[in-house]
């Protein structure tokens, strides 16, 4: 996406939500994908034709990100921008991707995200098969299995970026706040307490303004910082071949952005 388009697309929620804006975004996305040429927008073009064109476009131009910064760019500038503008390409979903992936996969990023049904990483970053390792737990809480999964990803040189992805309105964080404020609640399920226990230290004191959002952000930071200390991860980060960042997805604006 061109720089001018990117600036315009980072505008207000109202503009992101307006039908006019969405249609402009769709047309831009189609133009960027070369789909506007010829009869691509005619009503007579059936699904098979559209799919064929999409495959041709993807195969011709796709090169996986080869550095942490390229991976970040692909997710947050290109992919999420398409999602935000409702101009998704749904890349790498078809036979020309599925068939070669039988033999091997080389995902270039890992997303450690929440289970929330409104925040599927492949959708909000508009990526396809073979692009992302994804680990999902409520509140993107870490346990031995998730740490093992990130360690595995970090041993693969083709993985350039690990993103800890939290989000607006996270039910796991809300539950942790509820639990912290009412520690005496009887019969709180131990399996849920496992989750809230791991989030509680990120929660500011009761009465803090914007408390839930601060807790969501701090939970992201703490998980990112923990991953940065993992023995399979920290040497690669020091060498510049892998990065671990925190990010947050906003349900109301459809924007994914970094949390520092
Ligand atoms: Zn959540």
TrEMBL record:
Q: Which SUPFAM superfamilies match?
A: beta-carbonic anhydrase, cab
Give the SMART domains listed for this entry: Pro_CA
Q: Which GO terms describe its molecular function?
A: carbonate dehydratase activity; zinc ion binding
Coiled-coil intervals in this record?
A: none
List, as start-end ranges, the regions of compositional bias called Low complexity: 11-20
Describe cofactor binding as the record notes it.
Binds 1 zinc ion per subunit.
Q: List required co-factors.
A: Zn(2+)
Q: Which InterPro entries does the record match to this protein?
A: Carbonic_anhydrase, Carbonic_anhydrase_sf, TAT_signal
- This one is known as Carbonic anhydrase
Residue positions binding Zn(2+): 114, 116, 167, 170
What segment(s) does the record annotate as region Disordered? 1-20
Its function?
Catalyzes the reversible hydration of carbon dioxide to form bicarbonate.
* Record keywords: Metal-binding, Zinc
Has UniProt tagged this entry with the keyword Zinc? yes
């Amino acid at each position: 996406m061109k720089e001018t388009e990117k600036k315009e697309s980072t505008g207000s929620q109202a503009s992101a939500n307006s039908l006019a804006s969405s249609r402009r975004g769709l047309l831009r996305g189609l133009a960027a994908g070369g789909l506007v040429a010829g009869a691509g927008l005619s009503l007579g073009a059936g699904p098979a034709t559209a799919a064929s064109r999409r495959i041709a476009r993807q195969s011709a131009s796709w090169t996986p990100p080869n550095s942490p910064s390229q991976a970040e760019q692909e997710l947050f500038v290109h992919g999420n921008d398409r999602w935000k503008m409702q101009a998704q390409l749904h890349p790498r979903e078809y036979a020309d991707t599925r068939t070669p992936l039988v033999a091997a996969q080389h995902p270039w990023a890992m997303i450690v995200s929440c289970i929330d049904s409104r925040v599927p990483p492949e959708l909000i970053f508009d990526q396809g098969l073979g692009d992302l390792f994804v680990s999902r737990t409520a509140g993107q809480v870490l346990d031995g299995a998730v740490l093992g999964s990130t360690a595995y990803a970090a041993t693969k040189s083709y993985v350039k970026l690990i993103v800890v992805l939290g989000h607006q309105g996270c039910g796991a964080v809300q539950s942790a706040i509820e639990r912290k404020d009412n520690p005496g609640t009887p019969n709180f399920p131990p399996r849920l307490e496992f989750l809230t226990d791991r989030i509680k230290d990120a929660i500011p004191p009761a009465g803090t303004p914007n408390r839930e959002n601060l807790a969501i952000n701090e939970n992201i930071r703490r998980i990112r910082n923990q991953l940065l200390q993992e023995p399979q991860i920290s040497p690669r980060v020091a060498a510049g071949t892998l990065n671990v960042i925190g990010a947050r997805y906003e349900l109301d604006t459809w924007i994914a952005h970094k949390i520092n």
